[in-house]
Amino acid sequence: MTSGLVKVKEGTTELLVPESFSRKGPGTRTGEVFYNRQMEFGRDVSVMFGRTAFKEGQAILDGLAATGARGLRLANECGVRADFQLNDRDIRSAVLMRQNADMNSLGHVKIHCRDLNGLLSEENYDYIDIDPFGPPVEFVDMAAQSCKNDGIIAVTATDTAPLYGSYPKTSLRRYGALSSRSPFAHETGLRILLGFVVREAAKHDRAAEPLLCYHSDHYFRLHVRIRNGAARADAAIKKLGFVRFDARTLDRALVQEREKMGDAGPLWGGGLFSREILKGMKATGDLGTAARCSKMLEVWNEEAAGPALFFTMDELAKHTKASPPKLAEFVDSLEEIGAEASRTHFDPKGLRTDLPAKELLRHYRSFARK
Ligand SMILES: C[S@@+](CC[C@H](N)C(=O)[O-])C[C@H]1O[C@@H](n2cnc3c(N)ncnc32)[C@H](O)[C@@H]1O
Q1: Distance in Å, CA 298 to ligand 1 centroid
Q2: Does 92 contact ligand 1 (Cβ within 6 A)?
Q3: Is 70 in the same domain as 154?
Q4: Assign residue 29 a region: left if phi > 0, alpha if psi is -120 to 50, beta otherwise?
Q5: Model's pTM, two decimal places?
Q6: Could you identify the atom of ligand 1 that is nearest to the CA of residue 129?
């Protein structure tokens, strides 16, 4: 084995990674080829997604591949014969990716050592994965052009603080949208990122349609389908809006016009998931984080059709000064009175419901008294 490298296994794929790899917490730039074990869950999700979304013969690119962890797992574990390609502008990454590809008998996987935007300006792909350090903004425009009609772009963003509302001006500069702090700021952050991708695609008369968009640990992750057509792009733009939130009444809504400064947006107001994609995703036992994947799939399925902007049990408890009941029992009680209700993956104490804040608080008070 090359010195300074250790062998790890994710799913059924073996990888040589730098010895000093980050075992937990957000990945740090160490001057070596990047690898973060904590992202295994995200890569397991990519494998589940690829197994249901990829088709034979497609051109599939991991654009910022580092050790090749994600792209090689897609090539090795999705069971699809396709043109898998991996790219990283760092020559040490390219060398290591080749070694890792050969170690898994993936000699057919192509390795590029290019600036990603340069590569995207010359080639077209059915799937483009963008997993950068921090914000993905510099790559989305080219990806939106390079992606084939009906293809997919997957985007990671780890610059969570601006998107959560801690740095609204940074969010405005990067994403052209103001972020704001609120109990549901993780959802707002994801929707700002999604709104940005929708606008970048629309510049080229293309629509970005969400397939699987989630928040996890210290990052946001999107998978969107890119479809040609100015009318489709216009329809996607129509789903952008602003968050109206009143912390005194807990009233929240997505509205078309910004009502006061400080309201977050513009951001995506539509759905975050495709029911069909979720139906096809299976948390099989070969995945290292299968139990977590299975739980996550359950919650994503529950919340897929729910309204935007969740509530938290903590804010309901604080507002009513009544201690919170069990979330599952409270969700059931909302369904019993005919409301739409579900958990949400954004927060273990979060719930989605179509009840307006006033009615939700009334129901909460009477439920908590029982
Ligand atoms: C966060 S790492 C990718 C992690 C990887 N996807 C994984 O799952 O382990 C980002 C990588 O992007 C590469 N990179 C940064 N800017 C680039 C650019 N403009 N073109 C190509 N590669 C780039 C870096 O060298 C680094 O290896």
Answers
A1: 31
A2: no
A3: yes
A4: beta
A5: 0.96
A6: 6
